[in-house]
Amino acid sequence: MFRNQIGQVTLEQACDQTTQLWSYAPFVSHYLDANRDISLIPWPDPWVLLYENYYCDIAKSLGMLYTLYLSSHRPKDIALVMAQDLDTKQGYNLVQIEQGKYILNFEFNTVVNNTLTENLKVLRRYTAQDLKIDLY
Question: Is the pLDDT score of 36 beyond 90?
Answer without folding.
Answer: no
